[in-house]
Design a protein that fits this description.
Layout: H1 16-24, H2 32-66, H3 70-73, H4 76-113, H5 119-122, H6 131-138, H7 141-174, H8 180-220, H9 225-236, H10 239-260, E1 266-269, E2 274-279, E3 289-295, H11 297-308, E4 313-315, H12 317-326, H13 338-356
Parallel strand pairs: 1-4
Antiparallel strand pairs: 1-2, 2-3
Length: 381
């Protein structure tokens, strides 16, 4: 089992974060055998499908270079023009084949591990020049596997080649008795068929190499339990740091909430355990919103700030509890509490108007709170 520098066993699979970091460094599973097989097989198929046409067109290019009028042989510009035409025609012949090979060379490597461009993977690393580490890599499991693959390829291709030679031996021996054109076509057919079979034989090597590369990649990225714990702490944050962050966030939220209390229209209280501050702008709001709420000490602070800023306090215990449990800060109150809150707001607005002039309004009787707001946890709204 692999171990890290501390001697701890790397028994855990790599986390998504570790895999992403490895991808950024260019550490992806790659199979050179699959790439080699794909390129050779595609080249063999292309030569089988397009080989005849390519030979004919290349023959035409060759004739263009050989069938030159005698007068043009002594004309420098004419020879340059003929050379340019030959090069152009030759490129037109081989370009489709080269494009197919280019696409294959790009697709084959990323079929296993996906695409990734890493500058770090291209950077110079002095430890790669260390001969001791080089020897360690040679005699490691990967080095042994590479040696076995090389021997397997040699034996496989040698065996398949010998079998093809034995199979086509009578035809090869008879090529000398055929006409030149027919013999060349026959030889080309034998060569293309042999090329396809030899390339296809590498499928066996690739089928063995691909699972090994995936296993080796996963093994190299394995982590110890301590590494996973450290990564979790670095990602999620240490408990004490998270607690301080949450406490700081609560302080900021409470400070903002206290700053909104002077803008409230009324504070509905329990009278001592709950306090909910409401604000309603008839021109901008469709319903009253909760600007602050709290219990126990926070409720006391809300009442203190409200008194200091002349915000009316209204004692309605059931409604205060219902608002506290059913409405969040900076959100509208539930529709089921519209009527109860409307009665209190109407009284508060009338009370503010009578301070300037007019009779003192009658305080509404106990406001009704629907039973649905008393079905919360523990019987609370």
């Amino acid at each position: 089992m692999a171990e890290n520098e501390d001697g701890q066993e790397k028994s855990e699979q790599a986390t998504p974060k570790r895999l992403e970091e490895a991808r950024k460094k260019g550490q992806l599973p790659r199979s050179r055998e699959m790439t080699t097989m794909a390129m050779l097989l595609m080249a063999a198929l292309c030569m089988s499908l397009m080989g005849g046409q390519m030979i004919e067109r290349l023959g035409a290019v060759l004739q263009l270079g050989l069938q030159v009028e005698r007068a043009k042989l002594f004309d420098t510009f004419a020879m340059i023009e003929i050379l340019g035409q030959a090069v152009y025609q030759g490129l037109l012949v081989v370009t489709p084949f080269l494009l197919v090979m280019l696409v294959t060379a790009l697709i084959a490597p990323i079929a296993l591990g996906g695409w990734s461009f890493s500058v770090e993977a291209l950077s110079f690393k002095a430890d790669k020049l260390n001969p001791l580490k080089g020897l360690k890599r040679i005699f490691a499991v990967r080095g042994i596997v590479e040696l076995l693959k090389a021997l397997a390829k040699f034996l496989l291709i040698g065996s398949v080649g010998a079998g093809l030679l034995w199979h086509f031996l009578p035809e090869l021996m008879g090529l000398g008795r055929e006409a030149v054109e027919h013999g060349l076509a026959h030889a080309g057919n034998i060569l293309s068929t042999s090329f396809v079979v030899l390339s296809a034989s590498l499928l066996l090597i690739a089928a063995i190499d691909v699972p090994f590369q995936l296993w080796d990649h996963a093994k190299n990225l394995k982590m110890t339990r301590q590494e996973i714990k450290d990564e979790h702490k670095n990602t999620e944050g240490r408990p004490e740091v998270k607690a301080r962050v949450r406490a700081r966030q609560r302080e900021i939220a409470q400070r903002r909430m206290m700053e909104e209390i002077p803008k409230a229209d009324v504070i509905i209280t329990n009278p001592t355990h709950y306090a909910v501050a409401l604000r309603y702008d008839t021109e901008k709001m469709s319903a009253p919103i909760v600007v602050a709420k709290g219990v126990e000490l926070m409720a006391s602070q809300i009442r203190t700030v409200a008194v200091a800023n002349n915000v009316p306090l209204y004692e309605a215990p059931p409604l205060a509890r219902a608002l506290y449990y059913s409405a969040e800060i900076n959100q509208e109150i539930p529709a089921g509490l519209y009527l109860a809150v409307a009665q209190i707001l109407a009284y508060v607005f009338q009370l503010k108007a009578t301070i300037r002039s007019g009779p003192i309004p009658t305080r509404p009787e106990a406001v009704a709170v629907p039973d649905e707001f008393f079905q919360g946890p523990g019987g609370n709204p």
